[in-house]
Structure formats: C-alpha cells, structure tokens
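Hypothesis: this fold can be encoded by more than one sequence.
Test: take the structure tokens below, design a sequence, compare later.
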C-alpha cells in the first residue's frame, strides 16, 4: 500500500489544530473543485484526496490511528491483536519467533499474519476486518441543498442514511460497519459513498457560493424598479438601481449554498444582469427612441 501523507495534502504538519484542518480543507476544496478546473484531468482525483485527508484528520479517533500506524491506520485493531498474539506466541513458539525479536521486525510479522502463506494456519486465531464497499449516489443541486434521508440496500439489508445539506460534488462519506462481514468475529468493513451532483440549468455552484444570470429589460435597467428572482428554495424580491449596466453584479449575502455540517451558515448568491434590448418595435416606439437619442 502506498503511503498517503494527509498532512502534506492539506499543507499542514502534525501539530495542526482542528481549526487549522477545517480552514485548510475549505480553502483547498474551493481551489481544486472540479467545476473550477474543467481542463485539469487530475482535478477530480485531487479533490477526492483533499476530502479523504479531511475525513481522516478531522476525526480525532481516526487521526490518532493515522498518526500511530501511518498507511496501516485502517487496520489498527488487527495490528494490536496481531501484536498481542505475537507476544503470547513468542514464549511458546521460540523455534519460529525469537523472544528477542525487535519492534522494527513487527511489520514483517504483520504481513505474515495478514498476507503471507505461513499465516494461513493461524487465520482461525486472528480476527480479520471485512472488506470496504464503495457506492455512488447521484443528486441534483436542489437535493444537495437540504438535509434529507435516503434508504440504501447493502448486503440484502436496508439502511437509512442522513445526507447533510451542503454535500460537495465528488465528496465521499463513510458509513461505519456497513461493508463486508468480518472473518473469525472481526469487525465489518465500512461503506464509502461518493456523491455525484448534477449541474443546475440556471444556477452554478462553486463551493458554498451560487452564481446566476438574470435577464433585465431595458426599461428597468434605465429607470430602476423591482424584480423577483428564483433561488434554489425561495423567490426573492430585488430592487434594481436606475442606470444599471449590462454585466453588472449584485451579491445577496447568505442566500447561497448551505455550509456542510455548519448548521445555519450559508454562502452568498451572486447575480449578473443581462440587459435585453427590445425587439419588434412599432414605428411609434422607434420614433420615441429616435427622439430620445437626439436629446
């Protein structure tokens, strides 16, 4: 197994605080979001690595195992069981394992117990963790906007999961204990679910912020007024300033996407005005515009 340095992925060191980890994840998730890097073929892979690093380092228990066992952190329980078994066996099986065997040799023993041929005879005495499963759930942007529950069938059993509002496209979450069954009484594996979120026809999401373009007729652009726009969950009334220019932008604070696992916090909604020139004018209307141009 190739060792993945989660600290390096997030640009941190082992002394990083939970707040440091949270801030680094948010910054990198926005920077390397696949939607922001459409021409980068590695964008999705990098984004998944960032999510994976955050999933491990933001969880105190997982981080502790990762710091102690490195690439074998997911097998920490088996590692400890194998260590105990090794200690018990060293006194009675001296012909195969010397009691003076150093800690540094334990990784070889670990490989024997979990992958080597000589471990076959002992498999009855060692508990093995079940296989991890991977699944993908497809959502649209409106689904990802709210927290809701969904029922999945895994190993013939139905499980109900809660999908938090603000889930990212490409983000992976873990459902502990719902992977393959353990062997010899070992723990079950985990279920990893990756979310694929479809684009919205009118609203674009980048991180926690939303972006949309709103058509504005020439008369409202010149004279100002009030319009009603659709967001993902409600209609919003918006005042248009007189002499609004084509391409000008307005920010609606707190009207963006929910922040993942940060209840009550939202990004912003950015609106770009696209001024529509009237067509099929009558002769009278053309005369009025002509008169206006002369003034």
């Amino acid at each position: 197994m190739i060792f993945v340095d989660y600290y390096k992925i997030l640009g941190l060191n082992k002394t990083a605080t939970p707040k440091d980890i949270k801030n680094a994840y948010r910054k990198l998730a926005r920077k390397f979001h696949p939607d922001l890097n459409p021409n980068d073929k590695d964008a999705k892979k990098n984004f998944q690595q960032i999510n994976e690093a955050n999933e491990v380092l933001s969880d105190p228990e997982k981080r502790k195992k990762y710091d102690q066992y490195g690439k074998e952190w997911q097998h920490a329980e088996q590692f400890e069981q194998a260590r105990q078994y090794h200690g018990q066996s060293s006194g009675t099986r001296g012909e195969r394992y010397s009691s003076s065997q150093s800690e540094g040799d334990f990784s070889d023993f670990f490989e024997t117990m979990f992958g080597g041929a000589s471990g076959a005879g002992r498999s009855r005495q060692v508990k093995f963790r079940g296989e991890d499963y991977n699944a993908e759930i497809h959502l649209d942007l409106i689904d990802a906007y709210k927290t809701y529950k969904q029922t999945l069938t895994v190993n013939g059993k139905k499980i109900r999961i809660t999908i938090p509002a603000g889930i990212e496209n490409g983000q992976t979450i873990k459902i502990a204990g719902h992977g393959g069954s353990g062997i010899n009484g070992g723990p079950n594996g985990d279920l990893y679910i990756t979310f694929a979120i479809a684009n919205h026809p009118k609203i674009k999401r980048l991180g926690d912020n939303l972006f949309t373009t709103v058509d504005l007729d020439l008369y409202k652009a010149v004279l100002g007024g009030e319009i009603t726009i659709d967001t993902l969950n409600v209609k919003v009334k918006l005042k248009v300033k007189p002499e609004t220019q084509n391409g000008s932008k307005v920010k609606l604070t707190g009207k963006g996407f929910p922040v993942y696992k940060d209840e009550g916090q939202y990004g912003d909604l950015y609106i770009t005005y696209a001024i529509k020139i009237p067509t099929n004018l009558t002769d009278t209307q053309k005369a009025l515009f002509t008169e206006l141009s002369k003034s």
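The longest helix spans residues 43-57. Residues 90-124 have pLDDT under 50 and may be disordered.
Hypothesis status: open.
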